[in-house]
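To whoever is on call:

I kicked off a structure prediction for a single chain this morning and the downstream step that reads the tokens threw a length-mismatch warning. I double-checked the sequence; it's 221 residues and nothing unusual in it as far as I can see. Pasting both halves so you can look.
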Amino acid sequence: MREKRDRFLRQDEIVTLNLEDSTHVVSENHFYKSEGYYALVKNEISGINTLPRSADVIDAYIVPICLEKAKLAGIDVSEWEVSYSYVTAPCIIYGLNYFATPGEFTIAREAEQAREIIKHVTNNGKYPFCYQSLKPGEEVRTANMVFGKTANAKDAGLPVLAKQVYDEFKIPLASMTYIASGDRCKLSSLGPVRYTKLTKDEKTLLGGYLNRKWDSFEEGS
């Protein structure tokens, strides 16, 4: 019997896992027109019960839609506004144009800094942006989620938030930006995450799900 290789997912690799009664598609990116997105659509057209749903990943990566959908599901989210010019600093700013990278944000600590950021993300006022005001004591943090779980959570409220977000959007691997204040964690945005950005513990966590797939790999496959 050949010994199983010690390996991890390669860049852009997509893996499908049959868990319970659904096929889960693990990818670095499920955003619109990515290979991960097309893998979801192909399965859906074929009548395969697939998670996440293609409609849900589009919603998840557009900040205002993501937060409203999460809020309706009872998830604690950051208050947000859409604007072309006005913000209340300090705040987090997200671009909303077609070329904006999902989950990418900039923190503006003062009004002058905010004006420069807005000028960039709106292409001089051509596109809107989303901003979330920050209150004293609030900190902006990010965490990678693996099937709704996090490794080495720094905030007490993070595991619960991660599970709630996964239950709503069903994205196997995602980066979550959240606002922490004491034990409270509020969802700010979701985005894709590269395999190379995962920590050792996160890779171990994901590997636990992938082992059933890798058990069938042979040397040289």
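Update from on-call: the warning came from a stale cache, not from the record. Cleared it. Sanity check on the structure: The first strand starts at residue 15 and ends at 19.
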